[in-house]
Structure formats: structure tokens, C-alpha cells
């Protein structure tokens, strides 16, 4: 029982409330938002170290004992994701200082960002399935604000679809929780796991499979897996670059986290139908994402479709459910959050310089912006998993795990996908950054140097993450260990 | 009682689906509220109806009604209320900006070649 693990939720919450009252002075808002984002990173890093030393940390809110009250649980998996979220948030806040525009800053932009972080960190930390729904809603509400803020025509049009999809998926989430509650009579994730294993120890009732598929639909809608990703490319295209980076790096990953958590806790003893389904969907997600990424000539769209590819790759590792593939998935998940945020910020910067996101009217940026060009090049290599950059280790482990559980086709498609990802992202590099220099009308109004701080920070971090894989590996494997052995989590929550 | 509730919930989901498949934004928004009502009733029913007396310490009854689903719906209703309010404002604002409430005309083609 420590209070420490609530701090990554509490700090952004208090900051968000304070910022509502500080909306008159933009300078004050920037200071508060920047400092609190920095503080959250430090707290999250300390939390990771605490979990590393002392194992899974829990906190029973209001001192209600574990299965009855709401429990917050920080195992290594969630602590690492909280840390990554805080880092991405810090980078996006720094980019926003110059990149979002004063109009949006005056209308509570930083508050909405902070509430979004509350929701994301909360969803990663909570150990209660209904509380997960509540934190999802906190996150979605702030994402509605962020996607509408500015009120341009494209934003209004796309936010209608975004909100509609999410309202439906929230209703489905409530329905799934209702079914789950009627079967097990509890909401605590650890306790549900115990009860479900008692039920499926006796027989294999079909209701557990139904529940698994329902949860897959709910989280698949948020996490953009194959048949349910249709809303994502349009909606993520609408908002400005820092918001896009926050969405692309964090929101889909919350869906992926929830799938991983529910499958490793609830449905691991299920007859195998859900596992098969998840593997097939993950592979189809990879293929669909690749097709989109190769087809478009719009820089934002290419990176957006790359989110879908990454979701597929991570879920393939999760579905394989052996220790290698899970370690790879955790590794790749964190890598992907960092590198996607960096890519979205870089692509946003390119679009700001060129005044359009269409690749055909860009070109030759490396002449005047060499820093941008080479940072993008490194980010592109890291994304496709060229050793020794950060994408490599994760993909290697996922493929290794896929082969050792005899999912040869899946592992082969994951391998081929990284080549095609490289092609899709090099298309941006060749057409946008190489080539004959052009002059753009809008480029002089872009504060290029100040906007480069955040993406460079993220790319450097990603390089260290890849080169220092030996150093981070113990943390990652501790996270994967909890995922393969649900008893570690259950013991920490219920037997205290 | 549970059977009756199941039928009511089914009818609510059915009407919600019908409304949400229409073209007008207002109908879609009404559809989402009906859908969330259905989901809330489902939680209540899944906890079991009329299982015993009120869950208070002084009642000394042999069986108590499960209070948890009621707490859950309360939370879910508040969230649905907030989202619906936002959605209505958004629908109105986008009608003013875009000049249409027909979803068929709101397809986006940016970034497509």
C-alpha cells in the first residue's frame, strides 16, 4: 500500500483544474503545463524504479479492502506505459508552445491535454474493470475537446464521426461489463480472474467466449484492429500536429493495453477460439494498414496508417502468448509510442513548412532544413526496425515467439510488413525531403528551431532505447512475466 | 420480471440501431441516447431484480438487493448525459458551419488522390 502510484493521475488532474482559471495569461499556462508534465515524468520514473525493486504496487482507495473497493495496481507493464505516456505528453506540450497557436491556447487547450493524460494514466493504472470504463470516458471526453478545438470545417465534420463511434463503443463497453458482472459478480480485475478460472476449471462455458469477443470488439474499436479501424484515418487527420501526436501515440495504445490486460488476466484459460481470432485479426490489421500506408500520397495519412500496422504487430505478439513474443510486444509498444509521437510531430512540421500535407507539392527540404531531414531519416529507420535502433529488438522477439509457437505465416507477414513500412516511410523521405529544393510561401512564419526541440528529444530517446536495450531489458521482461503469470498480479492485489 | 426487462432492452437497442442508421444528425444523437438507456437498463437487470430488501445494515433481512449495479448506472448515466450534451452542441454548431445535417454530405476526401 503506497500512495505513490496515484501521483501520475493526480498531478495532471490538479494541473488541469488550475489551468482552467489561468486561461487569461498564455505565458503562465505554458509554465504550469510544462512544469507539471516534467514533474509527472519524474514521478513516473520513480514509480518504475519502485516497482522494479519491490514488485507490484497496489493502492486500495478509501481503504476498502481489495475485491470490494476500487484498487489501483501498478505492475511493471502499467508503470512503464505510464512513464512513456508522461514523456510523450511532455514532448507534445513543448511542441505546443510554438506549434498550436495562441487561439487554441486561450481556449483551455492545455487543460484538455492534462485531462487526457489523467484518463490515459488512469486507464493504465486502475485494477477495476468499471473504473477502466470511467477513465476511458475521461480520456475520450478530453479527446472530444481536443479534436473539436479550433472549430474548422474538417474538424467539425470528422469529430461527429469520431464521437459517434466512441459513444457506440462506450455503450458496448457498459454492456460487456454488465454481462461479465452477471457471470462473476465482481468488478476487481484480479478477483474476476480468480472467479473465471474457477468457472472454466469445471467446464468450458460458451459465455466466456462471448465475453471475450465482446471485449475484443470494444477495445478493438478504440485500438483500431482490422474490421473496426475505419474511423481512424479520417478522424486523426483533422486536428493539428501536436493533438494528432497525442492521439496517435496514446489513444490507440490504451485500446491495445486493455486487450493485453484482459486477455492475460481473463481469457488465457479459454478454449483457444479467442486466441485464434485475435491472431487472424492481428495479421489482417497488419495487411490493411500496409495497404493504406503504401497507397496514400499524403504525409499525415501515411503515418496514420502506420499506427494500424503497429497495432497489428503488437497484437500478434500478444495473441501468441509466449514469453518471448510478449516481451517483444511490450518492448515494441513502448518503442511505438515514442516513435509515432516523434513522426507525427515531424510530419506536422513538414506540413506546416510546405503549407500542405500533400507529398507531391513538397520536396527538397533537406537543403534548408538538414536537421529536420536527418531526424526524420533516423525516425523512419527506427520505425521500420533497422538494428540497432529501437524497433528492431521488439520485432525480433515477436517474430521469434511467433516461430516458436508455430505461427509461421503470421511471423512471416510481420517480417515482410517491416520492409513495406520502410518503403512507405521512405516515400516521404525521398519525395518530401530529398529532391529539388522548392520555396514555400508559408515557411518563413514557422518557428522551425523551436519546433524541432520536441521531436529531436523523442528521437534521441528512441535511439537510446534501442542501443541501450540491454539496460532496459530487465524491466521489460519483468513486465512480460506478470503478463504470462496472472498469479503475480492476483497475489499482489488480493493477499495483502 | 427479468424476461420482460430483456424484451424492453432489446426493443430499445433495436430502435437505437434504426435511429443511428439514419442520415440526420439529430436522429443519430437521439439514437445514441436510446442506446445508452438500453445499456443502463441492462446493467440493472444483470445485477438481479428484487433480490431482497434494501442494502442497509439495520434491515436484518435474510437477503439484500445488490447495490453495486445501481452505483454503476448512476456513473454511466452521468457520463452519457455529458456526452449527449456535447454531441447536441456539436451537431448544432456543425449544422451552422457546414450548412447541412445530412451525413451523406459529410464524407471527407482530404488526402485522397
UniProtKB/TrEMBL annotation, chain A:
Domain NADH:quinone oxidoreductase/Mrp antiporter transmembrane: 128-420
Record's keyword annotation contains Transmembrane: yes
Domain of life, source organism: Bacteria
Source taxonomy: Bacteria, Bacillati, Bacillota, Bacilli, Bacillales
Pfam families associated with the record: Proton_antipo_M
Family to which the UniProt record says this protein belongs: Belongs to the CPA3 antiporters (TC 2.A.63) subunit D family.
Compartment list: Cell membrane; Membrane
Organism in which the protein naturally occurs: Cytobacillus purgationiresistens
Broad class of the protein's primary localization: membrane
PANTHER family membership: NA(+)_H(+) ANTIPORTER SUBUNIT D1, NADH DEHYDROGENASE
Protein name stated in the entry: Multicomponent Na+:H+ antiporter subunit D
Record bears the keyword Transmembrane helix: yes
Membrane-spanning ranges: 6-23, 30-48, 68-95, 107-124, 130-151, 163-187, 207-231, 243-260, 272-296, 303-325, 337-359, 371-389, 409-430, 451-476
InterPro entries listed in its UniProt record: CPA3_Na-H_Antiporter_D, NADH_UbQ_OxRdtase, ND/Mrp_TM
UniProt entry keywords in alphabetical sequence: Antiport, Cell membrane, Membrane, Transmembrane, Transmembrane helix, Transport
Recorded topology in the membrane: Multi-pass membrane protein
UniProtKB/TrEMBL annotation, chain B:
Keyword Transmembrane: yes
Annotated localization: Cell membrane
Signal as UniProt keyword: no
Keyword entries, A-Z: Cell membrane, Membrane, Transmembrane, Transmembrane helix
Family, per entry: Belongs to the CPA3 antiporters (TC 2.A.63) subunit C family.
Identification of the protein by name: Multicomponent Na+:H+ antiporter subunit C
Chief localisation class: membrane
Residue intervals passing through the bilayer: 6-21, 28-49, 69-90
InterPro entries: CPA3_antiporter_subunitC (IPR050601), NUOK/Mnh_C1-like (IPR039428)
Topological type in the membrane: Multi-pass membrane protein
Amino acid at each position: 500500500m503506497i500512495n505513490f502510484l496515484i501521483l501520475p493521475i493526480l498531478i495532471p488532474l490538479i494541473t488541469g483544474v488550475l489551468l482552467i482559471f489561468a486561461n487569461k495569461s498564455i505565458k503562465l499556462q505554458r509554465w504550469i503545463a510544462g512544469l507539471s508534465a516534467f514533474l509527472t515524468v519524474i514521478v513516473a520514473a520513480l514509480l518504475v524504479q519502485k516497482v522494479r525493486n519491490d514488485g507490484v504496487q497496489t493502492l486500495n482507495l478509501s481503504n476498502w479492502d481489495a475485491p470490494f473497493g476500487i484498487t489501483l495496481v501498478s505492475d511493471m507493464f502499467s508503470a512503464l506505459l505510464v512513464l512513456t505516456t508522461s514523456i510523450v505528453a511532455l514532448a507534445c506540450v513543448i511542441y505546443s508552445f510554438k506549434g498550436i497557436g495562441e487561439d487554441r491556447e486561450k481556449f483551455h487547450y492545455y487543460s484538455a491535454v492534462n485531462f487526457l493524460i489523467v484518463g490515459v494514466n488512469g486507464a493504465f493504472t486502475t485494477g477495476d474493470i468499471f473504473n477502466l470504463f470511467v477513465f476511458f470516458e475521461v480520456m475520450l471526453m478530453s479527446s472530444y475537446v481536443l479534436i473539436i478545438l479550433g472549430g474548422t470545417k474538417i474538424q467539425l465534420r470528422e469529430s461527429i464521426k469520431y464521437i459517434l463511434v466512441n459513444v457506440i463503443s462506450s455503450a458496448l463497453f457498459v454492456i460487456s461489463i454488465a454481462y461479465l458482472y452477471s457471470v462473476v459478480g465482481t468488478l476487481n480485475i484480479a478477483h474476476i480472474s480468480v472467479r473465471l478460472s474457477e468457472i472454466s476449471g469445471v467446464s468450458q462455458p460458451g459465455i466466456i467466449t462471448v465475453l471475450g469477443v465482446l471485449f475484443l470488439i470494444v477495445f478493438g474499436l478504440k485500438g483500431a484492429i482490422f474490421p473496426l479501424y475505419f474511423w481512424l484515418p479520417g478522424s486523426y487527420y483533422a486536428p493539428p500536429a501536436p493533438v494528432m501526436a497525442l492521439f496517435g501515440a496514446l489513444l490507440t495504445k490504451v485500446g491495445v493495453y486493455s486487450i493485453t490486460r484482459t486477455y492475460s488476466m481473463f481469457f488465457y484459460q479459454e478454449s483457444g477460439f479467442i486466441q485464434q481470432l485475435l491472431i487472424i485479426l492481428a495479421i489482417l490489421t497488419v495487411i490493411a494498414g500496409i495497404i493504406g500506408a503504401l497507397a496514400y500520397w499524403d504525409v499525415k495519412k501515411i503515418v496514420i496508417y502506420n499506427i494500424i500496422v503497429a497495432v497489428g504487430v503488437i497484437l500478434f505478439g500478444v495473441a501468441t502468448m509466449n514469453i518471448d513474443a510478449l516481451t517483444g510486444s511490450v518492448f515494441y509498444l513502448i518503442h511505438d509510442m515514442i516513435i509515432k509521437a516523434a513522426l507525427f510531430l515531424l510530419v506536422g512540421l513538414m506540413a506546416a513548412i510546405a503549407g500542405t500535407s500533400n507529398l507531391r507539392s513538397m520536396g527538397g527540404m533537406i537543403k534548408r532544413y538538414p536537421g529536420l531531414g536527418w531526424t526524420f531519416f533516423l525516425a523512419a529507420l527506427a520505425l521500420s526496425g533497422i538494428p540497432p535502433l529501437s524497433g528492431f529488438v521488439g520485432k525480433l522477439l515477436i517474430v521469434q515467439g511467433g516461430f516458436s509457437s508455430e505461427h509461421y505465416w503470421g511471423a512471416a507477414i510481420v517480417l515482410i510488413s517491416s520492409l513495406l513500412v520502410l518503403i512507405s516511410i521512405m516515400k516521404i523521405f525521398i519525395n518530401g525531403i530529398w529532391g529539388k529544393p522548392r520555396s514555400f510561401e508559408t515557411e518563413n512564419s514557422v518557428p522551425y528551431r523551436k519546433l524541432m526541440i520536441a521531436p529531436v528529444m523523442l528521437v534521441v530517446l528512441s535511439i537510446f532505447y534501442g542501443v541501450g536495450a540491454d539496460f532496459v531489458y530487465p524491466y521489460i521482461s519483468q513486465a512480460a512475466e506478470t503478463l504470462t503469470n496472472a498469479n503475480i498480479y492476483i497475489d499482489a492485489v488480493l493477499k495483502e | 420480471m427479468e424476461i420482460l426487462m430483456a424484451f424492453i432492452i432489446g426493443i430499445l437497442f433495436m430502435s437505437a440501431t434504426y435511429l443511428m442508421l439514419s442520415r440526420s444528425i439529430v436522429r443519430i444523437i437521439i439514437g445514441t441516447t436510446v442506446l445508452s438507456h438500453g445499456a443502463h437498463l441492462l446493467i440493472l437487470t444483470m445485477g438481479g431484480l428484487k433480490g431482497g430488501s434494501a442494502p442497509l445494515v439495520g434491515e436484518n433481512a435474510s437477503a439484500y438487493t445488490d447495490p453495486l449495479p445501481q452505483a454503476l448506472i448512476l456513473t454511466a448515466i452521468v457520463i452519457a448525459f455529458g456526452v449527449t450534451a456535447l454531441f447536441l452542441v456539436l451537431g448544432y454548431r456543425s449544422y451552422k458551419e457546414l450548412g447541412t445535417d445530412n451525413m451523406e454530405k459529410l464524407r471527407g476526401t482530404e488526402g485522397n488522390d
